[in-house]
Amino acid sequence: MQTEHSTKLYVLTGFLGAGKTTLLLRLLDALQGRRIGVIQNEFGKLGIDGTILRNDNIQMVEVNRGSIFCSCLKLQFVQALAEMAAQNLEYLFVESSGLGDPSNVEEILQAAQVAAGASYEFRGVICLVDAVNFLEQRGDLETVNRQLKHCHLAVITKTDLVSPAQLEEVVRAIREINPVCPIEQSQMGSLSPQFLQDDLLLYQWAEGEETTNSAETKPKTLFMDFSGTVTREQLTAFLREIQSDLYRCKGFFHLADEGWNQVDLVGSRIDWKPCEEKELSQLVFISRIGPAVIKHIFSAWETCVGQEMKLRN
Ligand SMILES: Nc1nc2c(ncn2[C@@H]2O[C@H](COP(=O)(O)OP(=O)(O)OP(=O)(O)O)[C@@H](O)[C@H]2O)c(=O)[nH]1
């Protein structure tokens, strides 16, 4: 796939909340001054990480509302690849949605090559594995297995949050799915850029296959808009009520006495980070239980907050 002016292309995968954006931000920092592009694929249409990643030195394209590996968004993804190919970049990082199944990634890249004359040197798929939640997630969804099976480098994230025994168990579980990929460890996005020099494609384990992503398997995603303020305690109580119904929740919220915060719910952990002011408080919910979550969100909100909010598809 290499041509004279080819852009080195990496695909980042890893289940919802594994730490893809956190790692990408650190990597972009380490590569400051280079010509870099990012294609970001969000399940929700808010493009919340897009706001975080906005930066003049980085070319960024968002492909939202589904998985770039699904036939429903494949064309948009190929178009984004073609657009980026015109930018004469050194590196292009594709952050796929946490529910993305990259089994067909090479087929898509070939389509981009043929359809748009895009010249990329595919350098591999990097799969982030959440040390806290992976052992539970792997039995939950085929996507989690597929992401690992089709990667060329696995990075275990959140190693600061688990015991050495759990870390060992995670490594064993990775090896059951992918016996060959190198395994690195990371805390808050730290990762030596050495992998950029390595020929990761040597560690190809599985042959390309059909993705499991389709319009039918797409999980229900909902958005909340809220124009008031709540306390951290109220929002925590609300999230605790619905956390078992969700794969993931994230957004920005205006907290009374504290100001604006980025809110991340992954598994049972809630992270809060001060952030810049927004027009509205917003949350994205990715449902584990389909549309039934709507009723749960409304009743939990009524109990814990009781102010008017809007929920939309
Ligand atoms: N303690 C700790 N927290 C981490 C680490 N990596 C990521 N996080 C936190 O985990 C949460 C999710 O991280 P993100 O980088 O948004 O994860 P993501 O994979 O991009 O999430 P999606 O886009 O929703 O799939 C955030 O609150 C991060 O701060 C880590 O190594 N240690």
From TrEMBL:
**Coiled coil: which residue ranges?**
none
Keyword Chaperone among record annotations: yes
Give the matching CDD domains: CobW-like
Q: Which residues does the UniProt record annotate as the domain CobW C-terminal? A: 223-288
Q: Where is the CobW/HypB/UreG nucleotide-binding domain?
A: 10-182
Record-stated family: Belongs to the SIMIBI class G3E GTPase family. ZNG1 subfamily.
Q: What protein name is recorded for this chain?
A: GTP-binding protein
What organism is this sequence from? Pseudoflavonifractor hominis
Q: What is the lineage of its organism?
A: Bacteria, Bacillati, Bacillota, Clostridia, Eubacteriales
